[in-house]
Amino acid sequence: MRIVLEGNINRIYVQSLCMMFFHGEKFPENEKNPRGEVKLRLTENERDILCECEFTYDLKTVKKDSYASLKEGEARERTIKRAVGKAVYEAGRELTKKDIPWGILTGIRPSKVAGELLKREGYQRALEILKDEYLLSEQKAKLCLKVAKNECEIIDAYDNQTCSMYVSIPFCPTRCTYCSFISYATKKLFNLIPEYIKKLVLEIKSKVQAINNLGLRLISVYVGGGTPTTLNEEQLEMVLSAINSSVNKNDLVEFTVECGRPDTITEGKLKILKKYGVNRVSVNPQTLNDEVLIEIGRKHTVNDFFDAYKIVTQEKIGAVNTDLIAGLNKDTIDSFKSTIDQIIDLCPDNVTVHSFSVKKSAQILRDDSEIYNKNDDIAKLSVDYAYNELIKNGYEPYYMYRQKNTICDLENVGYARKGSFGIYNVLMMSDNHTVFGIGAGATTKLVKKTGEKTQIKRIFSPKYPYEYLQDNRNFSEEIINYFK
């Protein structure tokens, strides 16, 4: 698709809007004969913005204009986005006959806009603005505000002298067909694990020392992947022991291990988690439909999940999360409803409902290029059912994010019972919290505040385990120099 812009318009934002209507669309420069084209012209004065849009696809053209006026307390960039967004949305909707539940609110964190509105306008007015000016459906507007309220409470509870740490274990027993994470499931790469763990332990100790030197308080640790419990008991103990012996336990509020795959969870590994103070774990079935599990390349059964969940609850480690995915291939609305109902019967502390997102490096896209356009109605109905049933049963949505090329442009939401919210998931997405990434594929996000000014710097660890093992850079020194 070709995009032609005239005026101060954010090209990435326009691309995001177009992808809501045309999943998987690409935007190569200088495309000569594009199937689709969007032409936008922006006219602005001190207070008012006019955006004129001409949207063409398969020789059909729709033209729409949109006005927006600068509001008190609103950044000009946000006003321009509203004008551009409405013009593209209205044209795209007429062209495709699709209603997008999130309207013109794009980006990873829709609740960020909702939080700003909530603080400035109050609940009722914020709800009206999200529906009337950002074009959200009523359900998504209410969801957004519920999430924003809970996110703000968590973010406001911790000042910028606190930080978190993410430890990457990028190995899995098998690779799911929808996966694009930096995770590895071959014997050759498993042979790297012993050396990887040795270097990881050294980096954990080095990073915690840097945290202490900076006078920061480490309040949450998240061990993710991949699947951390792919490690054997000895390897898992080495990692958790290094964390446990390095951190100040009086400051540590949350210590999470994403066990993930039920087929990697054993009683012995859970005893190690408990021994070293882990107080939050994930057991992720994704679906309770064996046919769908086979389709997505999971090498465990529904019964394996129930067995693993029983072991986890018997050990009484702390808060338990289960991850589910709506819109998976071969799933039906009835089987997804059954999954939600069975999960609610188990009473986990946290349930995360993901919407199926098609990643460009995932196996499923190579096998089926039309996967973008499947299961749309099932995904919508599944997400709506999860929302209604979880809230009815005492769960609250407390964090949310969105991804590109998600079926129906839907969202990923973490639901939890009050008192069981996972703080890492919220803090690591905020612009107020420093996160130290450790291991292959991890990202360190440094947040430095000077008065009203916030600076953010990201440092990326080598992407692959073999690159990580060969890398000798001293990130701790770079981090300390940045803050000082």
What would the keywords be for this entry?
4-stranded mixed sheet, pyruvate-formate lyase- activating enzyme, 17 helices, 484 residues
Topology:
Elements: E1 2-6, H1 11-21, E2 36-44, E3 48-57, E4 60-69, H2 76-96, H3 110-121, H4 123-132, H5 138-156, E5 162-169, H6 187-190, H7 193-213, E6 217-225, H8 233-246, E7 254-260, H9 267-275, E8 280-283, H10 290-295, H11 302-315, E9 319-326, H12 333-346, E10 350-355, H13 363-367, H14 376-392, E11 396-401, E12 412-416, H15 423-427, E13 434-438, E14 443-450, E15 453-460, H16 465-470, H17 475-483
Parallel strand pairs: 1-2, 5-6, 5-13, 6-7, 7-8, 8-9, 9-10
Antiparallel strand pairs: 2-3, 3-4, 10-12, 11-12, 14-15
Helix pairs in contact: 1-2, 3-4, 3-5, 4-5, 7-8, 7-17, 8-9, 12-14
Within CATH, the superfamily of the largest domain carries the name: tm_1862 like domain
**Sheet with the most strands: spatial strand order:** 11-12-10-9-8-7-6-5-13
Largest sheet: 9 strands, mixed
Distance between the termini: 46 Å
- Rg over CA atoms, rounded to whole Å, is 23 Å
Number of domains: 3
DSSP, total strands: 15
Mean pLDDT: 90
How does CATH name the architecture of the largest domain? Alpha-Beta Horseshoe
Structural class: alpha/beta
- In quaternary terms, these chains amount to single chain
- What name does the CATH topology of the largest domain carry? pyruvate-formate lyase- activating enzyme
Low-confidence stretches: none
CATH class of the largest domain: Alpha Beta
Shape: globular
- How many helix segments? 17
Determine the strand fraction and express it as a percent band.
15-25%
Approximate helicity band? 40-55%
